[in-house]
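Supplementary Data S3. Sequence and structure tokens for construct A.
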Amino acid sequence: MSTYQPQAFRMLPTAVKHLLIINVLVFIGTIALERKGFFGITNALALWSVQSGHFQLWQPLTYMFMHASIDHIFFNMFALWMFGCILENFWGTKRFLIYYLVCGLGAAAVNLLVAPGGPTVGASGAVYGILLAFGMMFPNEQIYLYFLLPIKAKWFVIGYAAIELFEGVFHSMDGIAHFAHLGGMLAGLLLILWWRKHPFRNY
């Protein structure tokens, strides 16, 4: 599978649209609540390690809708729209949403294994899973790195994974959850391989 039907393409399909809305609303709502004095909202919804004493069962889901800054949410949502729209049009809404959530949960699982404390926030793990899927579904599509340099999707994804692995090993204290990003990609890879062996027509 390496093509999609351009006549059926939607610029803002259902799942991507609602994920964008939810992330933006949570970001704005968190800022508003913190300005009202509810400073514990981030700690309650962000992902903490089990050892920290702040971990809650809902955090592996809620953390992926939280963001630390405008730059953080902008780049994650831009990538979600840019690559997610193509994948949702290609896969369908149900399959795409399952994939997105599995990648986010996979990123959380890896982060819980390697992160010393927390908190961790952001949709980056799920977004990196989307990048992985794009590279697998459309390996020879051209992506313009920094909007200038053309590179095939498969090399783009491999390059990003290599960078995250390097940064995770050698710059683990830079405040970025590099292994969570890799966890999202790993979860996405395993799910795609599972689907290829166990296809479901209702997706």
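Construct B, processed identically:
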Amino acid sequence: MGYVFDFKDSREYQQLMSLPANRATADHECRLMLEMLNPLPGNTILDIGCGLGLNFSALLSEGLQITGIDPSPYMLDIAKKKATNRIDLHRGYAEDLPFEDNSFNYSCLTSTLEFVEDPQRAIEEACRVAKDRIFLGFLNRYAINGIQLRVKGVFTKTIYNHARFFSVWELKRLVRSLMGDVPISWRTACQLPQTFGGVAEKIEQISAVQRCPFGAYVGMTISLMPRFRTKPMPLGYRPKRRTGVVTG
């Protein structure tokens, strides 16, 4: 089941994300997702672990039809205020999605894998319900920010005490083990602190900088390949027996 945010966690996270610096970081991460996913207007997307609904506004601006799912009823209560009637919300777990195969064009998990019980199963489910691409957004295990969060958790109780951090290489290996040699692309964001202001924004637009594997946030896109299972079928034809000798 993983870690499910309770009422206290949900309120604290909402307050945390209302801070201007954190809001700007979340917007930056969301832009990275849209750039990498490159969705077509009118297509469908499943936001797995949608939480507070931080992605909703940007996804709606792209003309997408959104479905959100999260295990926390308290997070969903907050997300509903952003969703109105334009977004379909469900309560459920990333490892057991209540949707048919290929139900959506895209699926995304942003800051979700950190809190699930079985990341492999969650990725497998995300691939199952999508038919075009999936996006994985996660906190970088080897970024300075990720190390700071883990060290802080030793002395102070935070929600990140319950989080599992990943690296680019770890997630790539996991995806390959599940999906085989599918196309995978990745970039990182939040290379520099917010105190750098507009300078950081310009620097982080450089392609070489985004390929640095030590940015605080990693975005990874997986292009799904159709798979076909073939079954040999017996022939219903039986050749006639010939009696006699063929002469030339």
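The first strand starts at residue 44 and ends at 48. The beta strands are 44-48, 65-70, 87-91, 104-110, 130-139, 184-189, 217-223.
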